Amino acid sequence: MKRSTGNCYLCGTKTSKTTMLRHLATCLAREGRQGSEEVIRLRIDSAGLPEFWLDVEVKTDALLTTLDSFLRRTWLECCGHLSAFTIGKLRYVIARDDWEVDPNERAMKVRIDKALGPRVERFTYEYDYGSTTELRFQVTARATRRAGREPVTLLARNDEPVWRCSTCDAPAVSVCPTCVWNRQWLACAEHEEPHGDCEDDVWSPVVNSPRMGVCGYPG
Ligand SMILES: [Zn+2]
Ligand SMILES: [Zn+2]
Ligand SMILES: [Zn+2]
Ligand SMILES: [Zn+2]
């Protein structure tokens, strides 16, 4: 994989995915973090397409549903699919009328600090149980800040990767929904043609999201 770079939303610094965590630690410290609001810092990326990543800060009293809404707004929402967080042995799902509660399921309407407890460092999330986009979360810090920001605050985000047309190497604008998972079949505007076993020509736009190419996600 080519080195993935991203942007710090606090100061505009551009750096690599790995270095961004160290950058944020110093950048946030410089900001003066005295405050009483407790937050959990998370690195989020896509299991299948790790060049898509976010660093966010979440208030400890924010609900998992609030984080779910943020992810949908920023990265995922195509047509209102179901979603779930998996934390340890428990799955946190959106409560619905026909919900038959499984012993390992809980409603997503729960505070993130209660769901994570003091020790959980990693957890996962699925959007859409059919054509699933799976995200991974890593707790990178438990900290405090001054009050007054959004419950989920974006700290850093990957730069949009440059994908190349599979035919001519020009920058790609579309992706084949069938081939997106093996990072194959991208096309420039001129080369949106059927290929291999992918008969139909339903192309999806290249966008800055791990939902790229799935379910017609428009970005
Ligand atoms: Zn910064
Ligand atoms: Zn959809
Ligand atoms: Zn081309
Ligand atoms: Zn294809």
Describe the structure.
It is a single chain. The chain is an alpha+beta fold and 219 residues long. The protein is 15% helix and 31% strand. It is built from 3 helices and 13 strands; from the N terminus they run ββαββαβββαββββββ. The chain has helices at residues 17-30, 64-76, 112-116; strands at 5-8, 14-16, 37-46, 53-59, 83-87, 90-93, 105-107, 122-127, 133-145, 152-158, 174-175, 186-187, 204-205. Strands 2-1-10-4-3-9-8-5-6-7 form a 10-stranded mixed β-sheet, with helices on both faces. Strand 3 and strand 4 form a beta hairpin. The mean pLDDT is 91. One zinc ion binds next to loops.
DSSP strand tally: 13
What's the number of domains?
2
Q: Which distinct ligands sit in these coordinates?
A: zinc ion
CATH superfamily heading of the largest domain: MM3350-like
What's the architecture of the largest domain, going by CATH? Roll
Characterize the largest beta sheet: strand count, sense, and whether it forms a barrel. Answer: 10 strands, mixed
- CATH topology description of the largest domain: Structural Genomics Hypothetical 15.5 Kd Protein In mrcA-pckA Intergenic Region, Chain A
- Estimate percent helicity: 10-25%
| Order of helix and strand elements from N to C terminus | EEHEEHEEEHEEEEEE
Strand order of the largest sheet: 2-1-10-4-3-9-8-5-6-7
Question: Unreliable segments (pLDDT under 50, ≥5 consecutive)?
Answer: none
| Straight-line distance between termini | 23 Å
Name of the CATH first level of the largest domain: Alpha Beta
**Spatial extent as radius of gyration:** 19 Å
Mean pLDDT: 91
What's the helix count?
3
The SS-based structural class is alpha+beta
Strand content: 25-35%
Shape: flat
